[in-house]
Design a protein that fits this description.
With 542 residues, the protein is of the alpha+beta class. The chain contains 18 helices and 15 strands. A hairpin with a 4-residue loop joins strand 11 and strand 12.
Length: 542
């Protein structure tokens, strides 16, 4: 084949090859577009389903809150879900799409909790003051009831709807059926008959027996005037009239004891109170301003234990950081010596306490410190009977010992890392200048070490300041103060005291506990601010 023919053939092959490559690129591009379109539809489908679920739950929440006249939460939920829909349905807004889930959880679990705790701190919310005034009035009238002598007998049937029980009865001498429940006085119902009512289930005798406790506790008001009394039954077939020994006067806003004639009035403190100061409980929740903070510092039965707990909290946090840091630093220096053999095995042993769950270690230490059967008394001290966990000072010592065991591995790790990061030339220069080992450590290594670990020491202080788990599991805050009006003990920290005031015992004072929480926040924030400023000073000096 001649030269021009070969050249022509080559050009034709190159053209066909270029055309094939172009076709292949178009096919790959079309396949990629098809795959992207398919993936896009899948993403949109998942997005629409997720938003539909969120909208359905939000709609239910809005209706439920509106039914309970909780208008502010209902509006917030509605606005929030509309904002979420806008973020995920409007094209673009990519950063908002990633940030929204985190912001939602931040608002619910952080900001809302902080704001609500701040609000509760200025109320009397707690045992006996956890509802509205109307609920308190009804509760007072119910709890002081006595059966009316020679009252007529009401024949009743028990009805059930949505898990609640109702009476189906009639006035004595009347055939008109009436239905009533704990939250609704006796009244007629469309379609009601002597055998039942539409939408209600009439209970048979075995069902009545199965729910006899709930039925026996049911009190149905005769009318909207609660002073006219309630119907109560013991057998589910006959009911009797009960009236309260207290009389509620909504016009005068008073509650009168018909037996003694004592008048209790609303003094604005969340309870009906007599002139001698005696209050009827339950009361209701009201705004009390700064009274909880005033009580914390003015009431001797609260102020004394509170100041004792405050001092112990500072002492515990400072001693915990100091002891764990000193021991951790000492071990780090020892095991950082290159002359020591098998250093990695010793270091592994040193961090073992840090590897075990802290709550398990605390429980083990509680067993070790047991007065009668503990290893420390029986083996280490030869059968002594030392009350480690029941004596105030020994209990504090036991807590510090247990916390030293739990905390020194962390300090060992951070100080080991800080020591190994120190520049060798500075240390070598100190040796050349004739500095001793102690002088090198005190004047060079330790200041440089503090610059690196000071923020960690501040964080450790804040952690130990609120070290609830160790106190709760080891001593539960005991031994208790005998002269305190709140549930608090000698080894309680502020945070465990807040927990016990709010959630332990029969008298729970959420308002006072929230006030203590705000005080803790202010203290920790102030200490952290001062600590970080001192850290800045150390950095400037070095």
């Amino acid at each position: 084949m001649t030269g021009p023919a070969v050249q022509e053939k080559t050009q034709e092959s190159s053209a066909m090859s270029a055309e094939d490559r172009a076709r292949s690129r178009r096919q790959r591009r079309a396949a990629a577009y098809a795959e992207a379109a398919s993936a896009g539809w899948k993403v949109w489908l998942v997005k629409i389903v997720a938003l539909a679920v969120i909208d359905a739950l939000a709609l239910y929440a809005v209706f439920a809150l509106a039914a309970g006249a909780q208008w502010t939460p209902a509006v917030l939920v509605a606005v929030g879900v509309l904002a979420i829909n806008a973020v995920y349905l409007i094209p673009g807004l990519l950063p908002a799409k990633y940030l929204t889930p985190g912001l939602v959880f931040l608002l619910i679990f952080q900001i809302f909790v902080v704001l609500y705790s701040g609000y509760v701190a200025f109320t009397n919310y707690g045992s006996g003051h956890n509802s509205t005034k109307d609920d308190a009035v009804q509760a007072l009238l119910l709890q002081s009831q006595t059966r009316v002598a020679d009252s007529p007998t009401f024949s009743v049937k028990i009805l059930e709807k949505d898990g609640k029980f109702f009476f189906l009865t009639a006035e004595p001498g009347s055939d008109e059926p009436l239905i009533g429940g704990a939250d609704r006085p006796l009244s007629t119902e469309p379609g009601i008959s002597a055998d039942g009512a539409p939408g209600f289930t009439t209970l048979d005798f075995p069902s009545v027996i199965a729910h006899q406790d709930d039925i026996a506790a049911l009190a149905v008001p005769l009318s909207h005037d609660l002073n006219k009394g309630y119907l109560k039954t013991t057998d589910g077939s006959k009911a009797y009239l009960f009236t309260s020994t207290l009389t509620w006067d909504p016009t005068a806003d008073t509650m009168t004891d018909t037996k003694t004639g004592v008048v209790y009035s609303d003094t604005g403190r969340g309870a009906f109170t007599a002139k001698d100061g005696k209050a009827l409980l339950p009361g209701w929740q009201v705004w009390v301003g700064g009274d909880n903070f005033v009580r914390a510092f003015s009431d001797q039965s609260i102020r004394g234990p509170f100041l004792a707990v405050l001092l112990w909290t500072f002492a515990f946090a400072i001693l915990s950081v100091a002891t764990t840091f000193i021991l951790g630093l000492f071990l780090a220096i020892v095991f950082n010596d290159p002359k020591m053999r098998s250093r990695k095995y010793y270091r592994l042993i040193m961090i073992l306490p840090y590897a075990f769950p802290a709550f398990l270690s605390a429980l083990v230490w509680a067993g070790l410190f047991n007065k009668d059967f503990g290893f420390i008394n029986q083996v280490v001290l030869g059968g002594a009977s030392i009350p480690w966990l029941t004596d105030p000072w020994l209990a504090k010592a036991a807590i510090l010992i247990a916390n030293l065991w739990l905390g020194f591995p962390y300090m060992f790790l951070v100080t080991t890392g800080a020591l190994q990061s120190l520049p060798d030339d500075v240390v070598e220069a100190a040796r050349v200048d004739g500095a001793s080992v102690w002088q090198t450590f005190r004047l060079i290594k330790f200041p440089l070490l503090l610059v690196a670990v000071a923020p960690l020491l501040i964080a450790s202080f804040a952690f130990n300041f609120n070290n609830f788990g160790l106190i709760f599991l080891l001593t539960n805050g005991g031994p208790q103060f005998t002269d305190a009006s709140i549930n608090v003990g000698s080894t309680d920290l502020l945070i465990s005291m807040v927990y016990k005031v709010a959630f332990v015992g029969s008298e729970r004072d959420y308002g006072l506990a929230s006030a203590f929480s705000i005080i803790i926040f202010v203290l920790v924030a102030a200490i952290s601010l001062i600590g970080f400023r001192q850290t800045k000073v150390l950095e400037d000096l070095n």
